[in-house]
Write a structure and sequence with these properties.
The chain is α/β, with parallel strands linked by helices and about 270 residues long. Helix content is about 40%, strand content about 20%. It contains ten helices and ten strands. It has a ten-stranded mixed beta sheet with strand order 3-2-1-4-5-10-9-6-7-8, sandwiched between helices. The longest helix has 19 residues.
């Protein structure tokens, strides 16, 4: 883990991500890229010509550069190589494009979640990055004074399609010397007998060089509630998931467990793209 991308909109939630990312960077002598996506407000458009006011753009960019330099000088970032980037682009598209083109190993983002109509029709930039990013995304919801990841709950159906992202999870777990708590959530709509679920999980892990881990089956009324409750019972430091990155109408009708948890759980969530 050599390069960590941390998007910031200069909010307190973004600051939580920067603090957490700093701890990871120091642990592995990694570089941090602080990125601010500059989405221009409507008032920068010329009302007569429909063009864009270049002086206004430069004003916003210079202010963003100034704030990033102030962030770079915060005491908790001392000793870390910091790169500051300001780009003129849509937030979530710009973040995913930059990460794909610049050898980013991990994206760390803050989130306050969303609910109601905002969650359905607008959503947050964080959940959109979670959905679209090919790079693992760590979402921070609360202040973490010491990021000591020792227990990782990984919920999955343990199908063949998650073998590749599971390798990325193993690297993450070994990096923190953490114990993996593997869990299959069984619901009334997706029920498996204990023996069948155990066989699926045992066959899956047999193909990997596993760190310290345990396996359990947990019954609940729905998957999201099952993951949340199981993580609570284990006092997990972080929840890990694989995401399909559904988009458009498929996403609307099927939803995304990863995005739901990003919105609703208070624990850090890390996602790996299938």
């Amino acid at each position: 883990m050599k390069r960590i991308l941390i998007p910031t909109d200069f909010s307190k939630y973004a600051d939580l991500a920067i603090e957490a990312g700093a701890q990871i960077a120091k642990k592995n002598n990694a570089e941090i890229v602080l990125i601010h996506m500059l989405e221009l407000p409507g008032q920068t458009n010329d009302a007569i010509t429909g063009g864009t006011s270049i002086p206004a753009i430069m004003l916003f960019k210079n202010k963003a550069d100034e704030i990033l330099k102030d962030i770079k000088n915060r005491p908790y970032l001392s000793g870390i190589h910091i790169k500051e980037v300001v780009l003129l682009d849509n937030v979530y598209k710009g973040i995913t494009t930059y990460s794909n083109q610049n050898d980013i190993d991990l994206i760390v983002m803050g989130s306050h979640g969303s609910s109601g109509f905002e969650e359905i029709f607008v959503g947050t930039n964080t959940e959109k990055v979670v959905r679209l990013s090919k790079i693992p995304v760590l979402v921070i919801k609360n202040k973490i004074d010491e990021l000591d990841i020792k227990k990782i709950v990984f919920a999955s159906d343990f199908s063949k399609e998650i073998k590749k992202p599971f390798l990325e999870l193993l690297k993450f777990a070994k990096f923190f010397d953490a114990k993996l708590k593997l869990v299959m959530i069984c619901t009334p709509n997706n029920f498996k007998s204990t023996s069948a679920a155990q066989k699926t999980m045992k066959d899956f892990v047999a193909e990997f060089d596993m760190p310290d881990y345990s396996m359990e089956i947990y019954n609940e009324t729905n998957v999201e509630k099952g993951i949340t409750n199981y993580a609570d019972t284990k006092n997990a430091d972080i929840i890990a998931l694989c995401t399909h990155g559904r988009t458009a109408l498929i996403h609307f009708f099927n939803g995304s467990i990863s995005e739901d948890l990003v919105n609703h759980t208070t624990r850090p969530v890390i996602t790996f793209k299938i």
